[in-house]
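Shape matters. As here.
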Amino acid sequence: MFNKQARKNHNPKENKTIVRKEYNKMKNTKKGFTLIELIMVTIILGILAAVAIPRYMASVTAAEEAAEDAVISAIAAGLESYATEQLMANGRRSWPTDPWEALTTKPAGYANTDADAANDGEWRFKTSTANITHQRGDNTVHHWDYDKGTQSGANANTGTMGLRQSGAGD
């Protein structure tokens, strides 16, 4: 458009003025973000990430603990059912040496290996330490002490399960 006006008008000073005005119009119509806007967006995203990531990790940990509690409750219920069956069979409530024997359905991630849990989501029982171990998704291992109880004599009783403890156990 400015070329047509410049051709019609033979005055060089006016041509320069027309060209300069048209150039400024074109220069101001460029679209995009300024450096300040980009920096502000980056800062806002950084603040959101600083707040959101710790909350996300806390919720993942709480979910893993809830899942562990559900499995341990299922094990305890299975042990009580086993003890009742033993009472009916031989007149004495007892728990098995290996707590997995009391369960008809093993938990997801169950491994029939006499060792501490070594893979994400894995559940194991280690007979040397009498610990039920579970490895979480963040590679931390937690354990519950297991005692089958006294199986004979006048002081016979069922076993006990300890509370969750971090680490593989002793």
About this structure: The chain has a mean pLDDT of 85.
